[in-house]
Amino acid sequence: DADVTQTPRNRITKTGKRIMLECSQTKGHDRMYWYRQDPGLGLRLIYYSFDVKDINKGEISDGYSVSRQAQAKFSLSLESAIPNQTALYFCATSDRGVWHTQYFGPGTRLTVL
Amino acid sequence: GIQVEQSPPDLILQEGANSTLRCNFSDSVNNLQWFHQNPWGQLINLFYIPSGTKQNGRLSATTVATERYSLLYISSSQTTDSGVYFCAVSGGSYIPTFGRGTSLIVHP
Q1: How far apart are CA B47 and CA B87, in angstroms?
Q2: Which residue, A8, A39, A55, B79, is the most exposed by fewest CB within 10 angstroms?
Q3: Three-class DSSP category at A103
Q4: Which residues in A lie closer than 8 A to residue B100 (C-beta atoms)?
Q5: Which residues of B touch A42 (CB under 8 A)?
Q6: Closest to A105 in 3D by CA, of B92, B42, B77
Q7: Chain B interface includes A49 (CB < 8 A)
Q8: Cβ contact (<8 Å) for A106 and B98?
């Protein structure tokens, strides 16, 4: 969905490096989410934000941090990347709660060597 | 936490065939969704269905919460239905638990 964009789309980095994944949306939604998908598995929620001043931990927040710079922007940071953070990362938005329709970005494939 | 099992893990169909995908969960849920991930990785919500039955075109879903399962029906399958179908549930929190998915391949 072009309304939700993620940058970069692919990233290879080394262990110990700090990396930021960015998400932008033009849907005007207040609620934004970061998920992680490992091969052969479903998604796991990392962080979610219901507005600019509201940020909450999800199922697997350890090793990650987020920043909600504006209604339209939600960034995910890996402070010191490690190989088991190699995964596909998705950003999503919704105009209601996480249990209502979410619109996903195209994903960022991150490889940590 | 709630355990989610999806079956079958893999499904191969000829175009035009019908199929049923199942999602079993281990505890009471207040929330349940079905998602489709296409072969290029794009994720799309299909249904929010904590109970009852919904239909959207060739797809329909039924959740029997008291028996802890949900079914996704695909009728007259098309090649564009290929991908992975995920079920996600929660007992009332904002944090979903996803199943491992059913991988569907529809041959022309």
Answers
A1: 10
A2: A39
A3: strand
A4: 40-42
A5: 4, 86, 88, 98-101
A6: B42
A7: no
A8: no
Two tokens at B5?
A: 């099992």
Do residues A60 and A41 touch, judged by C-beta distance below 8 A?
Answer: no
* Separate counts of helices (H) and strands (E) for chain B: 0, 11
Tokens of A48: 């979610």
Residues A10-68: tens digit of each pLDDT = 999 999 999 999 999 999 999 999 999 998 888 999 999 999 999 999 999 999 999 99
Helix, strand, or coil here: B79? helix
Tens of pLDDT, residue by residue over B32-63, are: 999 999 999 999 999 999 999 999 999 999 99
d(CA B25, CA B90): 10
Q: Answer for the pair B34, B98: CB distance below 8 angstroms, yes or no.
A: no
- Residue B31: CA atoms inside 13 Å, Cβ hemisphere, count? 16
CB A93 within 8 A of CB A1: no
